[in-house]
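User: Hey, my collaborator sent me this sequence without any context and asked if I could get a structure. I don't really work with proteins. Can you help?
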Amino acid sequence: MEDLQITPQEVRERLARGEKLLLVDVREPWEYELCRIAGAKLIPLKTLPENAGALEEAEEVICYCHHGIRSLDAAAWLRGQGIAGAKSLAGGIERWSREVDASVPRY
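Assistant: No problem. I've predicted the 3D structure and written it out in structure-token form, which is a compact way to encode the shape of the chain:
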């Protein structure tokens, strides 16, 4: 499973270029209410198997969570399901807030 992670800076640059990346927040709804990356789709990790079909058409799926552990599991699982473009946001939304968008609250 090479290239399973992507840095927040790379995601920011690719979004700025207009690339179609599907951001998937695999945290719990209460976490999503605290903060989120604009445009992200909430699919909590425990519901990923029942919602994976909705991700099959996406060229690249970037999963994220709080610190990057759950999203790593999600990306690896999605790759195992044939979604080759699944990746995990390294460091999660915490790192995103520190390095890309300080307006995203940290918790």
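In plain terms: The domain at 5-99 is CATH 3.40.250.10 (Oxidized Rhodanese; domain 1). You can pass these tokens on to your collaborator as they are.
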